[in-house]
């Protein structure tokens, strides 16, 4: 699959700058809490997909969980070189999600990346995620629902989400519909589905 164009890569520069010191996403914090409560974090493998500047990935690595962050944006290579010195459990793989091959794993975190895939690729990636997770493996992240203003992205209905999650148990599900200012400062009518699910 083709690499990000320079323009596409650059369009994220400001977002990475603004978010690089953010706290971890609430859905990820919930996922880690759950892993710790019902499992240990020992000998676990986690992926942070569409990882951006890496605050979620670093948070997972801080728990001493082997963490692979992956993103298609080459701008991140330098950022992760710096993270690597601080977080020995963290590795970055530069790849498009559509081309990414997972190993068997215990956690996949997908914060605000799934809507950026075409529906066809989203279906494919969801299938790979389900196959990659071990039984009781955790998947956390967001979808954008059909009422979201950003209809150039892949918006999904609750029925479609139910179908994606038919082999998962819901641990946390929260639907937000309303005006929201994103990290880039843009206000939009947002429809966000936050989830943490466990593979059956
Ligand atoms: C909204 S940002 C989210 C970043 C981070 N997870 C967060 O929550 O701040 C979306 C990220 O997805 C990446 N991305 C978009 N399309 C992608 C694709 N097809 N494959 C891999 N990464 C992609 C972008 O480069 C960007 O870093």
Structure at a glance:
This protein is of the alpha/beta class and 200 residues long. It has seven helices and eight strands; from the N terminus they run αααβαβαββαββαββ. It is globular, with a radius of gyration of 16 Å.
Poorly predicted segments: none
Share of β-strand residues: 25-35%
Annotation field: number of helices: 7
What's the structural domain tally? Answer: 1
Q: What's the pLDDT, averaged over the residues?
A: 96
Query: Which radius of gyration do the C-alpha atoms yield?
Result: 16 Å
Number of strands: 8
What is the helix fraction of residues, given as a range?
25-40%
Bound chemical compounds: S-adenosylmethionine
Alpha-carbon distance between the two ends: 32 Å
Detailed description of the structure:
Strands 1, 2, 3, 4, 5, 6, 7 and 8 form an eight-stranded mixed β-sheet that branches. Helices cover 32% and strands 32% of the residues. Strand 1, helix 4 (55-62) and strand 2 (66-71) form a beta-alpha-beta unit. It has one domain: Vaccinia Virus protein VP39 (Rossmann fold), CATH 3.40.50.150. The mean pLDDT is 96. It is globular and about 40 Å long. It has 200 residues and is α/β, with parallel strands linked by helices. The chain is built from seven helices and eight strands. It binds S-adenosylmethionine. S-adenosylmethionine binds at residues 12, 19, 25, 50-52, 56, 71-73, 96-98, 111-113, 116-117.
């Amino acid at each position: 699959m083709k690499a990000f164009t320079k323009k596409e890569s650059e369009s994220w520069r400001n977002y990475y700058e603004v978010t690089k010191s953010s706290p971890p996403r609430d859905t990820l914090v919930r996922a880690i809490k759950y892993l710790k409560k019902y499992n240990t974090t020992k000998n676990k493998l986690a992926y942070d997909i569409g990882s951006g500047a890496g605050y979620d990935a670093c948070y997972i690595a801080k728990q001493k969980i082997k963490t692979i962050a992956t993103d298609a944006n080459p701008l991140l290579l330098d950022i992760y070189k710096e993270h690597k010195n601080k977080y020995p459990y963290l590795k970055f793989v530069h790849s498009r999600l559509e081309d990414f091959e997972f190993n068997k794993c215990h956690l996949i975190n997908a914060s605000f990346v799934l809507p950026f895939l075409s529906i066809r690729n989203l279906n494919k990636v969801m299938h790979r995620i389900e196959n990659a997770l071990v039984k009781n493996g955790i998947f956390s992240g967001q979808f954008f629902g059909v009422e979201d203003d950003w209809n150039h992205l892949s918006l999904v209905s609750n029925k479609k989400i139910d179908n994606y999650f038919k082999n998962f148990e819901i641990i946390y599900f929260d639907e937000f519909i309303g005006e929201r200012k994103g990290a880039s400062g843009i206000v939009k009518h947002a429809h966000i589905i936050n989830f943490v699910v466990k593979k059956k």
